[in-house]
Each structure stands twice: as structure tokens, then as C-alpha cells.
Amino acid sequence: MSDDHDERPSKSERKRRSDELQALGEELIDLPQAELDALPLPETLRDAVLLARRITAHGGLYRQKQYIGKLMRKIDAEPIRAALNARRERERAEALRFRRIEQWRDRLLRDGPAALEALFAEAPASLDRQVIGELLDRARGERARNAPPRAARELFRVLRDALDSRPETN
């Protein structure tokens, strides 16, 4: 009899799992419609998520989230978990890529020719020295005049296009 008791998860463990599944279900509410449609969800769960999106009353939304959690406990949540993890990973990679391009732009504006040589050493074939040089001059002038950073934005776009056209070397 004690063997059966030892194999069952504790009440605390069951509560943790339940809370984790409810949180996973709540993430579905915030997904863009196209991503929600791509997930393999049972119809009842999909309907519950769509209804939760329309509920504005706090108490009603709380109860709907509880219901979503209950539905999540009845299904295999691994495909949903995997899809949401893949989405988070794509967002993280995109943020890192964006930050890397911003760092190059800021480094070019701050360090000048030394940074320019480092950039051309990293991405020589995809960049036009003359275009980059003109954009840097314009961006520095805009900064000095406290003008809107049009050239800095254009420089960002040029760097994004050039650095995205080659494999990562982080």
C-alpha cells in the first residue's frame, strides 16, 4: 500500500503541474490568430481561448482562464509547449539579431574608420564602402544638429540587409 502512495505525485506537485498547464493555456490567449490557428488544439480548447479573448470583465476572464487550465489538463500539452517554446526562441533570435545590428551602427558612429574596417572584414562582399561612408557622415551631421536620425535609420537598414545576407558568425 505504501508503494502506491509513494508513486503518486504529491498534492503540491499536482498543483504545480496544474498551474503550469494553466499558464501555458493562458499564453494561447495572447498569440496572434495565425499562430493559434497553426496549433493542433482540440476544438473545445480553441473555442475557450477565442472566448477568453472577447471577455472584458475581470472575474469572467479569471474563470475562463481557470476553464482553459482544466481543458489543458485533459490533453497532451507537449505539442503546444513545443510550439510556444519555438516561438519564444524565434523572438529571442530576432531580438539578438536586431541588437547586433544596432551595436554595429552605434560602433560605426562612435569609432569611425576602425569600426568601418572591422565591419568590412566581417562582411566584405555585401557592403558598399561609399554608401556606408556617406550614411555615416550624414548620421553624424544629424546628431550634431540634433536632427531626426534619418541617415542612422537608413544605415541600420543597409546593415540589416548586408548582415542578414550571410551566415551568423557569433
Give the tags.
80% helix; mainly alpha; Diphtheria Toxin Repressor, domain 2; 170 residues
Report on the structure:
The chain is mostly helical and 170 residues long. The protein folds into two domains: 2-75, Diphtheria Toxin Repressor, domain 2; 92-164, PSPTO4464-like domains (Diphtheria Toxin Repressor, domain 2, Orthogonal Bundle). 80% of the residues lie in helices and 0% in strands. The protein is built from nine helices and no strands. It has helices spanning 2-7, 11-30, 33-38, 43-54, 58-73, 78-111, 113-122, 129-145, 150-164. The N and C termini lie far apart (56 Å). The mean pLDDT is 87.
Q: Short summary of the structure?
A:
This protein is mostly helical and 170 residues long. 80% of the residues lie in helices and 0% in strands.
